[in-house]
Input
Amino acid sequence: MSDLVAEFDSLLQSSDFLFVIYYRGHWCPFCVAYLKSLQSFASEITAANGKPLVVTSEKEVHLVATRTGSKYNGTAIVDTKNILAAELKKRGLIDVAISNKGGYEHGMAQPAVLVIKKDGSILYKWSINPSYVSTSICLISLTMLWGKRALTSVCTRMKMNLGGAKDRPDPKQIWENVNAQLHEKPVAHEKLHTLGIWTGISQAVLG
Output
C-alpha cells in the first residue's frame, strides 16, 4: 500500500469523517477562494469530530503559496503521481479527473469534493468534468464593407466551466447539508449554489 493511501486511511480512522477537497494549484484563484471558504468553517468540522483535508497533485514547493493565499492551515496531502486519486476510484468512492498540464508530470488532479465517514459511507461527493459541453460565443459588430454597412460575427468555442475552474458547489452549503445528515435532519439545501466566474475574479483582484 502506498504511503499516501496509508496516510489517508489513517486520517479517516482517526476521526468520524473526512471533508476532502481536491484543488488544482496555487495559481488557480478559484481553488484559493474555495480553500479560503473551507478554512472559514473548518472549526465546525473539527467540532463535529471530523477533519478537513485538501489534496493536490501540484508540487509540494507550492503548498506554502496555497496556504498563504487561502489561509488554510489544516491537513494537506501532496500527491504528484495521483496515487490516491487512483485508489479512491478503485474503491468506487470518487473519480477525480486528471488532465494534462505543464508542470504536472503525471497529470493535474481536477477539483473534487468527498465527504466520507469512518465506516466508508459517503455523505457527499462531487467531481468536475473539465470536458463539460462547450458553447459558442459570438460577437456581432457593425462594420463597413466596400462602402456599405454590414453585420459581421466572430464566434469562438469555450468550455462552459473554463476547463474545470468554475461551477463548483458552494463548500459552505455542502457542509451545512453534511452537518444536517450527521444530526439526522433534513438537508438545508435541496440544490447547491455553484460558484461562478466572479469568485475567481474577486480572488485574483482582491485576494
Summary: The radius of gyration is 20 Å. Residues 29-47 form the longest helix (19 residues). The longest strand covers residues 134-145. The helical segments are 3-13, 29-47, 63-70, 83-90, 171-182, 197-206.
